[in-house]
Amino acid sequence: MKYVYLLQSIPHPDRHYVGLTSDVDKRLASHNAGQSPHTSKYRPWRIITYHAFADEAKASAFEKYLKTCSGLAFRKKHFM
Hints:
Residues 1-80 form the GIY-YIG domain. The protein is α+β, with helices and mostly antiparallel strands.
């Protein structure tokens, strides 16, 4: 199972991050421990939402979509 997740920075609520993982709790802990250079300066993070996919290709495609301009509009409309 693959999960696409959306994080929000707690001290900087306008900062968000979209990622893909097989273990959401472990990945959130990794972000909050500063192990990702893209998210370390805005930690701690909280999970806004995550979605499970049985098909890894579909999960990857959804993650890529959420990182596009139209994906940002979708995120704002449905998750924020």
